[in-house]
Amino acid sequence: MRHVILSLLLICSIATITTANHCIQPLPEHQFNQLRNSLKPSRSEQFRMNEVLNLVNNYCFNSAQIQSLLFHVQTDHSRITIGKAAFSGVADPHNFYMVYDAFNSFSMAFRLHDIVHNQLIAPIVTPPPVIIQDPVIICEPTPDDFAHILRTIRNESFANDKLSALHLIAPNYCFTVNQIGQIMDAFHFSGGKLSAAKALYDNAIDQHNYYRLVDKIVFRSDKEELRRYINDRRF
Predict the structure, then answer these.
(1) How many Å apart are CA 32 and CA 52, to the nearest integer?
(2) Taking the model in full, what pTM does it have?
(3) Burial state string for 137-155 with b = 16 or more CB within 10 A and e = fewer than 16
(4) Confidence of residue 210 (pLDDT cuts 50, 70, 90)
(5) Which residues touch 186 (CB under 8 Å, ≥6 apart)?
(6) Contact call for residues 123 and 22 (beta carbons, < 8 A)
(7) Which residues contact 193 (CB under 8 A, 6 or more apart)?
(8) 157 and 185 in contact (C-beta within 8 Å)?
């Protein structure tokens, strides 16, 4: 039975590689023999298991030495407990398949194999949730910039020149509806105000307030045209 277990588990374990903190230098054989001979076979199974656990937790062993220690206990349940503890510090994890040959039961040997295999699988780290924040508006002009914009538009005499200046400036900034109203005030005639309002719609930070600009326009026909324009853009 043991040779069958050894052959099958060798196939399962041949590619096993771990990154655990395995020890480097196993205990020399003469020291290992002294420790093994100090074990007391006449005690209870629980006592014998605890004796071996104490050794594997405090000394560096290779797989062959761990296999030898497993013969000190009588049940495969004890061997699983010891094997699980021993694997994390064994000097030659690539030879750990030798430990399975100490088992009496085929299924119990495979149970230890599965436990060891699960130790080799790195835990899946769940990334923290991504917190989506509202975008920070960085295109709004400073008070000095806005004063310069108004001054530039006001310095132009004709509506077309004012609009040309506005078209040059607008792509670089976004504005509140209140600021757009002040820009419209720089135009003397209703048609110019309407053109400015249309030109700056896409630059408005608070487009839901754009209807307020209708009152900046004098003629009813221009008011209605701006309302239609806003409705068309929104819907």
Answers:
(1) 12
(2) 0.45
(3) eeeebeeeebeebeeebee
(4) very high
(5) 150, 153, 154, 162, 196
(6) no
(7) 184, 185, 187, 216, 217, 218, 222
(8) no
Cα–Cα distances (Å) from 107 to 88, 100, 111, in that order, read 22, 11, 6
187 vs 40: which has the higher pLDDT = 187
- DSSP letter for 204, please: B
- DSSP structural state of residue 3: H
Q: pLDDT (tens digit, 9 = 90+) per residue, 186-207? A: 999 999 999 999 999 999 999 9
Q: Is the dihedral of CA 220, 221, 222, 224 positive or negative?
A: positive
Nearest residue to 109 via CA among 26, 10, 14: 10
- Rounded Cα distance between 197 and 226, Å, is 8
Q: Which residues pair with 175 in a beta bridge?
A: 204
Nearest of 116, 163, 170, 174 to residue 140 by alpha carbon: 174
81: left (phi over 0), alpha (psi -120 to 50) or beta: alpha
Q: Judge whether 70 and 104 are in contact, CB under 8 Å.
A: no
Rounded CA-CA distance 202/137 in Å is 14
- Which amino acid makes up residue 165? A
Reduce the secondary structure of 189-200 to three states and give it as a string.
CHHHHHHHHHHC
